[in-house]
Amino acid sequence: MTHEIAVIPGDGIGQEVTPAAVEVLESFPIDFEFVEAEAGDAVLAETGEALPQETYDLAASADATLFGAVGETAADVILPLRTAVDSFVNIRPAKAYPGVDAVRPETDLVFLRENTEGVYSGLEDRLTQDVSTLTRVVTESASKRLAEFACDYVAGDEHDGFSIVHKANVMRETDGLFRDTVRDVAEEQGVETNEVLMDAFATRVCLDPEQFDVVVCPNLAGDVLSDLAAGLVGGLGLLPSANIGPERAVFEPVHGTAPDIAGEGIANPAAMILSTAMLLEYLGYEAESEAVNDAVEATLEEGPRTADLGGDASTDDVTEAIIDRLS
Amino acid sequence: MTHEIAVIPGDGIGQEVTPAAVEVLESFPIDFEFVEAEAGDAVLAETGEALPQETYDLAASADATLFGAVGETAADVILPLRTAVDSFVNIRPAKAYPGVDAVRPETDLVFLRENTEGVYSGLEDRLTQDVSTLTRVVTESASKRLAEFACDYVAGDEHDGFSIVHKANVMRETDGLFRDTVRDVAEEQGVETNEVLMDAFATRVCLDPEQFDVVVCPNLAGDVLSDLAAGLVGGLGLLPSANIGPERAVFEPVHGTAPDIAGEGIANPAAMILSTAMLLEYLGYEAESEAVNDAVEATLEEGPRTADLGGDASTDDVTEAIIDRLS
Ligand SMILES: CC(C)[C@H](C(=O)O)[C@@H](O)C(=O)O
Ligand SMILES: CC(C)[C@H](C(=O)O)[C@@H](O)C(=O)O
Q1: Centre of ligand 2 from the C-alpha of residue B230, in Å
Q2: Contacts of A124 in chain B (CB under 8 A)
Q3: B114 lines ligand 2 (CB under 6 A)
Q4: Which InterPro entries match (chains A, B) (predicted)?
């Protein structure tokens, strides 16, 4: 079976870490067909469109998409790409690695972020000179779909249920619906949950990240709190993510285009390669996925390391070291 | 001139730390008239109302209000109290103290949080079985009022302008209006600003809190990011806050009712007493305000300390030590 993989390097270091990720995937005897497409600031400047229709269509039809990073046009690219695969959940692991400086080295969290609605609805108006509004949308159906995914995600021995993070004391109807729906689905499925207000979560995760494990939350809460967790593990540099839809998915590192080092061949490919581990798992290659995770982890610990981690290795050196550790 | 101060102890340790704060204020030769009123879970259970009309009216007419803490009914009490004084800004300093364990001891931030709108509009609907909505409101007038306050706040030598934190890449119209309005006011007044996306702020403040100083942001962003900063300085326990309106204001510690230790006389009164320092400054007693801040800081460093900070002093011991240091 051939897996068609859309490859969208984007801007800046996206151009460097995306080929590294493809190399890692190519090192497995799996039948991938890679199809490259453009998106981001550069293609906007050239063509007037940050996300050309061909790229959108490709993501909407490929089995999976590897997305690097884009600059100023990030929202114009990543939000439609999520829509292209009907992604209802964004999986964001935030884990500290041995050998990498972290504010909270004991952090090991996974955010399951609602990926379609909330304040990301796009429903905004300037009603008068003075007043602008945004319609925050929360549906039972999206909350349910997320909750069912979360229940599957925590099935097995590794996790004891999940935390539901929300702000239902203020957003009573919308986050109330979110919280109740997620809780009810979990209850039906016999999955344990606990509830934490979004603001309280922000305090508590700094004080003691180990009290949390899997976190299920609305869209913006997931955006901000996963970035907070990124801060606790030492920055966005090492975090992968997966935008999962019912039939396809988009995988991307959480980091940006790093314009300060772009073009020098010294970008750390770890987050992008960890994103391929998520892709492998998504396609059913669990052993391969684990092998990639282990190889990245070993390389972070033992080197070679890129400049962001105090080393002087190139993107290629690190990629090769990871591939060597796979075999 | 007599200053009428409404005193609302609330529930749990609110009942213990609020009298401590009143004692501190009484130690100054200032003509205060304290009027006590009820709010919170206990009065809800007794009377069916978490915020009795008399309490609301008192806050709406007193020169300033000292508010302790309430339990489950927090949103039903604090949100109307903010409205009672037409509070357009919530000042939330988040500062690490010597002698207190902190994840990031170099943290010294002040959040100026919009305090009237955003997702706190109360405009929610369940449109259908499936769909609920909330209307997020951002006005030019509220953004302007906040920006003008922020410009005054940073005037003088201590601050080099402020950061505007928002999510205008997604909430283009609403946070766009917020950002543009705040930036324009600052520009007119010659105040330097920089802009940070809310999610990026969450990462960056963990990695290096010293890159920020005064942070101006919408309501929910202020709620969550100030609680994040609380996590960095060691918890909510020591943070005061001020809800400022055009003619009156409500001062409250950021911590809750601490039901686990309520009634034992061992609650740390520091945050509540720091809130009186904000009250003194608000009423124009700058020297007295500074004296209280210094006395609390010295007591945190040198003791006596309550149990939360590893000591065994009572609320009264700590309060007396602080008052002793005032003279
Ligand atoms: C670029 C932006 C629209 C996006 C988001 O807010 O979801 C980003 O912050 C992310 O988390 O992937
Ligand atoms: C209790 C709640 C409504 C309140 C808020 O969200 O503003 C609290 O978290 C705070 O920050 O004072």
Answers
A1: 14
A2: 171-174
A3: no
A4: IsoPropMal-DH-like_dom (IPR024084)
A23 C-beta neighbours (distance < 10 Å), count: 17
Which ligand is in closest contact with the Cα of B79?
2
Distance CA B72, CA B35 (A): 24
For domain A1-91+238-326, the CATH superfamily is Isopropylmalate Dehydrogenase (3.40.718.10)
**Residue A296 banded pLDDT, cuts 50, 70, 90:** very high
Residue closest via CA to ligand 2's atom 5 equals: B223
Q: Which of B41, B223, B251, B275 to mutate to test the pocket of ligand 2 (most atoms within 8 A of CB)?
A: B223
Average pLDDT, chain A: 97
Distance CA B251, CA B280 (A): 10
Distance CA A99, CA A112 (A): 26
Closest ligand to Cα A119: 1
Q: Which amino acid is at A151?
A: C
What is the 3 state secondary structure string of A141-153? Answer: HHHHHHHHHHHHH
State in words which class domain B103-233 has: alpha beta
Q: What is the pLDDT of residue B235?
A: 80
B136 closest CB neighbour out of A119, A129, A141: A119
Atom number, ligand 1, closest to the C-alpha of residue B199: 9
Tokens of A37: 């497409």
Q: In this structure, what DSSP letter does residue A269 have?
A: -
pLDDT in tens, B79-106: 999 999 999 999 999 999 988 899 999 9
Q: Name the pLDDT band for B306 (thresholds 50, 70, 90).
A: very high
| Phi, psi dihedral angles at A171 (to 5 degrees) | -95, 75
Instruction: Tell the burial category of A68 from Cβ atoms under 10 Å away from its Cβ (0-12, 13-18, 19+).
Output: buried
